Inverse folding.
């Protein structure tokens, strides 16, 4: 790998996107959207993405850290830039009414059939990354170096980035000199937004197993009821953010799943809770995690639980603050590409990502990609942009429907111009 040297200034405006490149990216997007797959099971998506990367001129390797894909577009001696997109979708029933809406289903971890939808825009990220590779392949005379395009599995479970690193992603393909990613967001399509503070929050996901003593519903005094214990834990956990964390700290705690029992007449043996903690600082994240452990143990002791609770950390990802120098260069490149009025500021939010694990020790940049179509924006209730943003279906909503006609070309241009900040010779 060649050292990057000073990041170059992108030339603007870049060559127009080829209509064929955009048409192929559009049909890839609609195909991926219609055939979403859950985290860790992205077999078809990975195959489709790999084929599209080959068509875009890349040498492709599959099966990295699960269904991970890497495409390599080599173009002489120079820096290496990696574009990252995610392969997975969510257990959400699509209600967009789009002609290419998903009707897919899959079995969840417990063998139940669930609907599946690309409700986070990862299909858009994949199609934009392929489009950027195809575009950069067509304008090879404008840059030198290596473009790597990464399809990451299992982002929604925050486990895929760790799996890629574990499987030797950077040993096999080298550490890039610049790592870039973008994420669909409920901003007007055709816009991008950069942050000045943290772009994504730190996140810890815990699986909590509470043990009771099962028995007959008629004799609760002879049992330790894990359903009542779980309910107590849920309520007590809510006091952490409300009553124990400083009000200026941005923290959330959500119990997103609670499972116990199979029959109304039987007090079960066990209850499990899925807990997500998010914070903008690692210190707050770990502090709240410690308070969760203490609260759960205290509730179990008070209930007379016969076994210590088990708290398993399912995933942990730190908050992401991009490299300020890289962020400034990317923002400038995007302002030249789109015009300053289409490059917004993004406020810190508690959305979480496992991108920071991939970006650890590597210069990196991350921005938000607007997906709301003009008609949808006009129809959204509210007089101000903030009111409209609050009313629009956000990521993970069954009605999340990116307006690909504008968002996809913007996503391609944002990635390509971002990559050229490092790849284009001075
Ligand atoms: Zn998501
Ligand atoms: Zn996402």
């Amino acid at each position: 790998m060649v050292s990057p040297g000073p990041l170059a200034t992108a030339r603007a405006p870049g060559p127009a996107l080829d209509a064929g490149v955009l048409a192929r990216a559009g049909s890839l997007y609609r195909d991926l959207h219609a055939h979403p797959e859950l985290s860790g099971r992205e077999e078809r998506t990975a195959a489709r993405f790999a084929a599209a990367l080959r068509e875009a001129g890349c040498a492709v390797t599959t099966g990295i850290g699960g269904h991970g894909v890497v495409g390599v577009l080599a173009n002489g001696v120079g820096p290496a830039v990696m574009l990252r997109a995610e392969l997975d979708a969510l257990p959400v029933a699509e209600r967009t009414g789009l002609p290419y809406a998903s009707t897919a289903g899959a079995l969840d971890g417990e063998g139940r059939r669930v609907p599946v939808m690309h409700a986070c825009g990862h299909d858009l990220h994949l199609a934009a990354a392929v489009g950027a590779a195809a575009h950069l392949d067509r304008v090879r005379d404008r840059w030198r170096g290596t473009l790597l395009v990464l399809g990451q599995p299992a982002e929604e479970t925050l486990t895929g980035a760790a799996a890629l690193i574990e499987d030797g992603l950077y040993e096999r393909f080298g550490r890039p000199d610049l790592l870039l990613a973008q994420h669909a967001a409920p901003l007007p399509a055709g816009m991008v937004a950069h942050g000045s503070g943290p772009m994504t929050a730190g996140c810890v996901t815990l699986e909590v197993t509470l043990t009771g003593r099962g028995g007959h519903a008629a004799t609760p005094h002879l049992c330790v009821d894990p359903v009542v214990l779980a309910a107590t834990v849920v309520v007590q956990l809510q006091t952490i953010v409300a009553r124990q964390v400083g009000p200026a700290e941005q923290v959330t705690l959500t119990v997103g799943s609670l499972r116990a029992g199979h029959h109304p007449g039987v007090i079960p043996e066990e209850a499990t809770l899925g807990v997500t903690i998010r914070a903008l600082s690692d210190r707050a994240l770990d502090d709240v995690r410690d308070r969760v452990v203490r609260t759960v143990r205290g509730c179990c002791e008070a209930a007379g639980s016969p076994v210590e609770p088990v708290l398993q950390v399912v995933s942990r990802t730190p908050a992401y603050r991009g490299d300020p120098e890289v962020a400034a260069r990317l923002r400038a490149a995007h302002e030249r590409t789109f015009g300053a009025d289409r490059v917004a500021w993004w406020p810190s939010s508690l959305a979480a990502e496992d991108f920071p694990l991939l970006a650890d020790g590597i210069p990196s940049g991350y921005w938000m990609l607007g997906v709301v179509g003009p008609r949808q924006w006009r129809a959204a209730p509210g007089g101000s942009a903030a009111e409209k943003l609050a009313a629009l279906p956000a990521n993970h909503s069954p009605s999340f429907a990116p307006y690909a006609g504008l968002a996809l070309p913007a996503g391609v241009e944002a990635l390509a111009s971002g990559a050229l900040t490092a790849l284009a010779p001075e």
